[in-house]
Amino acid sequence: MEIDKAIGESDDKRLKTKYNNAIFVIKRALSLYSIEEVAFSFNGGKDSTVLLHLLRAGYFLHKKELSCSNGGLSSFPVRTIYFESPSAFTEINAFTYDAAQTYGIQLDIIRQDFKSGLEALLKANPIRAIFLGVRIGDPTAVGQEQFSPSSPGWPPFMRVNPILDWSYRDVWAFLLTCKVKYCSLYDQGYTSIGSIHDTVPNALLSVNDTSSKEKFKPAYLLSDGRLERAGRVKKNASTKNDVGSDSQKHEVLLASVIAVGDEILSGTVEDQLGLSLCKKLTSVGWSVQQTSVLRNDIDSVSEEVDRQRSICDMVFIYGGVGPLHSDVTLAGVAKAFGVRLAPDEEFEEYLRHLISEHCTGDRNEMAQLPEGITELLHHEKLSVPLIKCRNVIVLAATNTEELEKEWECLTELTKLGGSTSLMELYASRRLMTSLTDVEVAEPLSKLGLEFPDIYLGCYRKSRQGPIIICLKGKDNARIDSAVEALRKKFKEGVFVDMK
Ligand SMILES: Cc1cc2nc3c(=O)[nH]c(=O)nc-3n(C[C@H](O)[C@H](O)[C@H](O)COP(=O)(O)O)c2cc1C
Ligand SMILES: Nc1ncnc2c1ncn2[C@@H]1O[C@H](COP(=O)(O)OP(=O)(O)OP(=O)(O)O)[C@@H](O)[C@H]1O
Ligand SMILES: [Mg+2]
After folding, report:
1. In the record, which residues are listed under signal peptide (predicted)?
2. Domain CATH number, residue 320
3. pLDDT at residue 422 in the model
4. Residues surrounding ion ligand 3 at CB below 5 Å
């Protein structure tokens, strides 16, 4: 069997392990269910193409163990379903049909939505288990295991996910090692394929070219698999969980800063990071809504993160990140999102480079990350990537110098990524005046009504000292107009610009 042979002859130990585990899952499923009771959900995508070949190999090996193999596979015996949609790429359709022809697959084409289609399929057939090419990191993988019953509200069947623990790199290592055909879109820079309405080539594979047409490198050259979905256009959402949506472009973005540490609460350590983060966020136009200091306790973290993530655009959390028993921040974040902590092989590799000699046991506990919601933000200046779980950024900094570096990388990354306009620079001006509160109060509130897009803040450093007025917004010209309007309300020279 050519797939089994290709993997057998490969030197890639990691791929061999992934392959053997997936084959084990497939063989278990084929022992648990009869061939009429299983189905394969195939859509021509890279993950389902991997699964197609694993199923071919798994079926062959399963038969061989039962000593009824004739040595080859002329047709594919597993019922294969394809939910065809008018919004699928023609290349995906063409590849799916081609693959069916090449490998002797009898395709069941379903032209209904997933749920209704599956209901009809299960009514008409004795299907009890469906193989899927779902992988950890896919939004739909959250909470799934290799064998996971379908969700409540869905027709009852077992979802079998043999490649759940495969990374993007593993997928390409397999397809290239086995030299199997895959959909042509992957050679044109597409890295994960949805519908024609929500998928474009991955900008990270763009090649600078003098000709007018933008060119892209093939999908297997994407070095950071975490960004495979960067070519998926975000669906419009105006929730606070989706930073960067158009609806928020002209508003002040809201941040929350959370410190985790018993040592801060007991007064043993002075928290410098919170202060520094507030300054940094404010300097780029964010409005910090709240800072909090929490105990090293999973529930305290999860409750606070859950609250803040729903009211703020971005939550920054630090402290409690590491291998100690008190390092509960990531577990708290996972709990806040209702997902488990799961080993993340890419992150583990970074940590292994960093602390290899000090690792104890088989698994590095620090490499457990909230499953399905974590994006690693890589930067060449960072030895370990930053962790972003939806709108929660987990900072590993333990002092202000480390924070400085992480912040610098974060601002660069979020500008580069394009998908999260996290750190768009805002304009601001500060004015100082010796007018009294009573004198400025009314004109200032009128100014607020005239310039609703400008944030107006006031404070004084001492009871008798001058008042400082801050104006913040996205546009320098708007701020200047607001300052002019404010000046016109008073005698000349009562406001002094501060640096
Ligand atoms: C065979 C099959 C079984 C599925 N079973 C479930 C399920 O049990 N629970 C669920 O929430 N979604 C289920 N889905 C839907 C997927 O989780 C997901 O919504 C779907 O792949 C569409 O992804 P998209 O929104 O990115 O296009 C199933 C899809 C397929 C094809
Ligand atoms: N239209 C569909 N018909 C049949 N199965 C589907 C369909 N869409 C998704 N699936 C199943 O869900 C799995 C996960 O889909 P997903 O889009 O994440 O992966 P993929 O399409 O195989 O690869 P890619 O991530 O490159 O798009 C697929 O491997 C397949 O098993
Ligand atoms: Mg797909």
Report:
1. none
2. 3.40.980.10
3. 55
4. 45, 193
Which among 392, 417, 442 is the end of a domain? 417
Task: Flag whether 309 is in a domain.
Answer: yes
Does 413 map to a domain? yes
Compute the average pLDDT of residues 51-61: 96
Ligand 2 within 6 A of CB of 192: yes
- Tens of pLDDT along 148-187? 999 988 999 999 999 999 999 999 999 999 999 999 999 9
**Residue nearest atom 14 of ligand 2, based on CA coordinates:** 134
Determine which of 223-227, 258-262, 319-323, 487-491 has the lowest per-residue pLDDT on average: 223-227
User: Do 400 and 337 share a structural domain?
Assistant: yes
123 and 262 housed in the same domain: no
Question: Which residue owns the Cα nearest ligand 1 atom 16?
Answer: 140
Query: Which residues is 81 bridged to in the sheet?
Result: 41, 108
pLDDT value, residue 424: 55
| Length of the chain (residues) | 499
Cβ–ligand 1 distance for 87 under 6 Å, the answer no
Verify that 86 and 160 share a domain, yes or no: yes
Residue whose CB lies within 8 A of the most ligand 1 atoms, among 79, 92, 114, for a mutation test: 114
In terms of domains, do 274 and 304 share one? yes
Distance between Cα 133 and ligand 3 center (Å): 9
Average pLDDT value for the chain: 87
Q: For residue 137, what are its two tokens? A: 């990191």
Q: For residue 356, how many C-alpha atoms fall within 13 Å in the half-sphere facing its CB? A: 4
Cβ atoms of residues 141 and 135 within 8 Å: yes
Range of the domain at 261: 254-417
pTM over 0.80: no
Cα(305)–Cα(179) distance, integer angstroms: 46
**According to the model, what pLDDT value does residue 69 have?**
60
Final residue before a domain boundary, out of 126, 146, 169: 169
**Percent of all residues in the chain with a pLDDT value above 90, rounded to a whole number:** 61
Complex ipTM above 0.95? yes
Query: Can you state the angle between helices 2-9 and 168-177, rounded to 10 degrees?
Result: 110
Q: Is the distance from CB of 45 to CB of 232 less than 8 angstroms?
A: no
Q: Are residues 282 and 397 in the same domain?
A: yes
